[in-house]
Design brief:
With about 350 residues, the chain is an alpha/beta fold. It has eleven helices and 14 strands. α10 links the parallel β13 and β14.
Length: about 350
């Protein structure tokens, strides 16, 4: 069965017309979809049409199985998809608005050593509609509508490598930005990548002013290879060149993520090489304290040393901050999302 959320309003209109339905119904149905309403709740659609659609399509591809709330009010969601698979998302509340971290794949095949999402490998890609449905579902759960959203910002930083699911992610971005739907500005969306260079350049050529975030985690190729397998394919120079290309095409400042790992990337030498690496274009560095992942034998840099690392960078004129930790107690922080629920159920 097809997911209606995989379709734009224009595509939905064509689909319904092919079934002999009038064009005006598509806008009504699309409005319900943006509110997370299943066929039975589409009260201005006649029963005959609803029955016809239920036989052929899925309107709501996921439901909330579990919701956890952190001490800092961060909300972690476990979504059950229509096919039984499970993904996670995290809602973080800030003074400027509410940010939802969404997944783009079920699992991940990138193999980064500090990340829980990749422990069980890649199950499958999410479709554009499944990515979009995470936002619609959490928006509805928090009392939002398409016209008055509770979700103001979106980060593609959950399970999966977004650029490894390129076509579905691009369609999702177009849909979530559409004035026919949720109308979330590209400037309020961040996409995180571990550094797939050809896809970064391809994305840059599309000139969507999305905030590009790059997981760097070491300024030295050989050390980066120890924690990020993708470093065996693309060098730091190639990644920096692609980042500069993205900035030139979009005029958007590039964000670099740098997880501080004791004994791996937190020395003065690392900071000095990092400062040289990031020179020459507009960027910002987010330092992240390593969050615990029980299966990984890595330790976080101690707080005082993390602050010292930041001070060195700032003295070298690097725009940098230490990211606030949120949702650690519910395994909802950076690097902690995982696919354990499926594993536990199938054990």
């Amino acid at each position: 069965m097809k997911l209606l959320l995989d379709m734009s309003l224009e595509e939905l209109t064509e689909e319904l017309v092919s079934l002999g339905l009038p064009k005006y119904k598509s806008k009504q149905i699309y409005g319900w979809l943006m509110r997370g309403v299943d066929f039975d709740g589409m009260t201005d659609i006649d029963k005959k049409t609803r029955s016809l659609l239920k036989e052929r399509y899925i309107a709501v591809p996921m439901s909330i199985q579990t919701k956890l709330i952190s001490k800092d009010k961060t909300q972690k969601y476990l979504f059950r998809l229509y096919d039984g698979n499970v993904i996670e998302g995290v809602l973080m509340k800030y003074k400027y608005g509410n940010t939802l971290c969404v997944s783009t794949q079920i699992g991940c095949r990138m193999g980064c050593k500090f990340c829980a999402s990749t422990l069980n490998g890649l199950v499958r890609n999410l479709t554009a509609g499944e990515i979009l449905s995470q936002i619609i579902t959490v928006n509805k759960e928090n009392g939002g509508t398409a016209e008055k959203r509770e979700i103001t910002n979106v980060v593609l930083m959950g399970s999966g490598e977004p650029l490894d699911n390129f076509d579905n992610v691009i369609k999702f971005l177009q849909q979530v930005n559409s004035k026919d739907g949720l109308n979330i500005s590209y400037r309020n969306i961040s996409l995180s990548t571990c550094g797939l260079v050809p896809e970064m350049k391809r994305f840059a050529d599309m000139a969507m002013p999305v905030n590009l975030t790059i997981s760097l985690h070491s300024p030295i190729d050989e050390r980066r290879k120890e924690i990020m397998p993708i470093a065996n394919k693309y060098s730091i120079k190639e990644i920096i060149d692609a980042a500069k290309y993205y900035f030139e095409k979009t005029k958007r400042r590039v964000i670099f993520e740098y997880t501080l790992i004791e004994g791996k990337n937190d020395t003065r030498q690392d900071a000095e090489i990092l400062a040289k690496t990031l020179k020459g274009f507009s960027n910002h560095l987010n330092l992240i304290r390593l969050n615990p992942v029980s299966e990984r034998n890595l330790r976080a840099t101690k707080n005082d040393k993390a602050q010292e690392f930041l001070t060195i960078l700032q003295e070298l004129n690097v725009s940098a901050t230490i990211r606030r930790q949120m949702g650690v107690d519910i395994n909802g922080a950076c690097g902690q999302l995982r696919n354990t629920y499926l594993k536990n159920e199938n054990a």
